[in-house]
Design brief:
The protein is of the alpha/beta class and about 475 residues long. It folds into four domains: about 60 residues, DNA polymerase, domain 1, CATH 1.10.150; about 110 residues, Rossmann fold (3-Layer(aba) Sandwich); about 160 residues, HUPs (Rossmann fold), CATH 3.40.50.620; about 100 residues, GMP Synthetase, Chain A, domain 3. About 45% of the residues lie in helices and about 10% in strands. It is built from 20 helices and twelve strands. A four-stranded parallel β-sheet has the order 8-7-6-9. The protein is elongated, with a radius of gyration of 29 Å.
Length: about 475
Amino acid sequence: MTLIDTAAGVVATLDALGDELGVAFPSHELAAALGPPLDQMLAPYLPEPELPAATDRFRALYPDHAIHPTPALAGAAEALAAVRRHHGRTLLVTGKYTPNAQLHVDHLGLDVDLVAGMVWGEGKAAVLRDEGASVYVGDHVHDVAGALAAGAVSVSVLTGGCTREALVEAGTHVVLDDLGQFPAWLDEHVLQTRLAALEADLRERGRLMVAFSGGADSAFLLSAAVRVLGPDRVVAATAYSPSLPLSERQPALEFAASLGVQVLTPETDELARDGYVANAGDRCAFCKSELLEVLGPLARQHGFAYVATGTNADDARAGFRPGIRAAAEHGAVTPLLDAGLTKEQVREASRRWGLATWDKPAAACLSSRVAYGVPITRERLARVEAAEAAAREALQAAGHVVRDLRVRDLGDRARLEVDGELVAHVDAVVLAAVRDAGFAEVEVDPLGFRSGSMNELLPDPERYR
């Protein structure tokens, strides 16, 4: 990736070298056309036998003359942050002497994983291939050659000495004015790449049953499957149980109907599983086992070889997800996860497709509201559902827009979590609504709603990974 503007430092170093050798290098002219290897740059001004010693001396002078005057290009930090935001690695593959390139990185505090120097043109391809680079950003036609030889996407910026026309003629895939445009380009590139991977995955499946909860992820997966395979080759399965809020059922049916998809509504009985009722840290594993042991035979009965869940890439990175492991052990497939699609990308793609679920708040099962160690019962789940509905209604009646709201059952009391900006507006009326649903005591979480906050109370989450 092109990250720094070395022109001033190169001028200073060339001038210092020229003073020692008694040669008047056209330093500003040479610095305006950076890119070729150093020996090629010096060759017109020195006898060939003197070139090796001159290049070595240039590199020795460089730290004292070029490191401090060299700034990062505008947008460099943001470009690196964009790569990191997508959980990528950043390589600095350059023709510069590796130790000097590393000095620049260290001095400017650039977030770079690997510095590989002394490579030029198509010679960069070997490093890019070895490191699995999918995108290479440069400012020279020879950077384009390296990217193309490696099979990487060539992104060129106009902050070097090459014109747009020259870069396009060299075969670059993208030309940006500067690095400031790179984050937005990368966001779109990654999204489209992952959507293409999802499409290929679904097309290969041929027929698919989607475990459809009605949430944003499973709704997007269902829609994607219909787009690729057609509604006659996709079926939605929404498992009915005490842990699925009643308020979720009708919207899920209506969404599937809008896609022309058949919906199966088998009943699952998590409460018949001792491990689920015990509600230890691995509760979700028993839930997913129950779900897949019901959906698996149902899928085969209807001629579907695969049952897919809406697990996304962020879910897998969260670390504490025993349910994901259990689903995998029961043969469920995870097309969103396999394509690398994050929650943010699922929402953005859903928005573009016009899906009503694109900004739907997270809607985990009712059991996720119960503190670990407190037994799960049908009555406890019904109480939580009633308390949430009452608290939401009370807040809305007071004129507040409520997005995320949870009533956490701590066993001896309830804890109410609402959107952060609403914490100060939880009054006696709202608290009374929660108590009337069956809780003797209720407290307000001053930190507001946090997805997965019950995991904070688990003493040893590593035990259940």
